[in-house]
Design a protein that fits this description.
about 220 residues, two-stranded antiparallel ribbon, 8-stranded mixed sheet, alpha/beta
């Protein structure tokens, strides 16, 4: 699907072929922010020539991302924005990613006074204009050790991260997260994931648009 608007920076989302990817990327509150959806196995160098941003959808198997690792790195190196969503084993296709899979408690919220242990690390970051702690808290799959050249935007209580950004290692902008909102939103359950996407995807669009104005 190509709905590219030549008047704005091009944002591509990679579809891993799952029904929840299609449901998410077709959502009328998400689709207008995305210019082109490409099935991941069909991605080619020329697709990224005029692109500004690339979303790798959550729960896309790493084995179909790895063949594109050099392509993704080259895109970062020439100034592109890459958003690496959760459950994609980012350490297999991105540099300097240290990830640990943790046990998932799907029912933590049933406990009196429950708190998942996540905190917004940089409240003044423009990502959080429309997102708060409740919007990033549904459950945990993985935790990251944040590289020295990056910064965590959502911390876990032990000092590790579930979402960080790196704006110094490449000419571009890298977002790495263990959050998997597309799966839950696209399967029509877990309202926090819907709130997250309705804040996060527009933030990606605003970020790309702002960079274009400054360039």
């Amino acid at each position: 699907m190509n709905t590219s608007n030549p008047s704005r920076p091009k944002l591509i989302a990679l579809d891993g072929g799952m029904g929840y990817h299609k449901a998410t990327l077709d959502d009328p509150r998400i689709a207008p922010h995305i210019d082109e959806v490409i099935y991941i196995r069909d991605l080619r160098d020329e697709d990224l020539t005029d692109a500004a941003g690339l979303i790798i959808s959550c729960r896309t198997p790493a084995e179909v991302i790895v063949p594109h690792a050099n392509r993704i790195r080259a895109f970062l190196d020439r100034g592109g924005m890459v958003v690496a969503m959760g459950d994609t084993e980012q350490e297999k296709w991105l540099p300097d990613v240290s990830r640990e899979q943790v046990e998932t408690n799907f029912w933590w919220w049933l406990e009196p006074g429950a708190d998942l242990g996540l905190e917004i690390a940089v409240p003044e970051h423009d990502m959080f204009a429309d997102l708060g702690k409740a919007d990033v808290s549904w459950h945990l799959h993985d935790l990251f050790d944040v590289p020295a050249h990056a910064r965590s935007l959502v911390d876990y209580k032990d000092g590790r991260s579930v979402l960080y950004e790196d704006t110094t290692s490449f000419a571009g902008h890298l977002i790495v997260t263990s959050l998997d909102p597309m799966y839950h939103h696209g399967a029509w359950f877990m309202p926090a994931t819907t709130r997250f996407l309705y804040g996060f995807i527009p933030w990606i669009r605003r970020t790309l648009d702002a960079r274009a104005v400054l360039s």
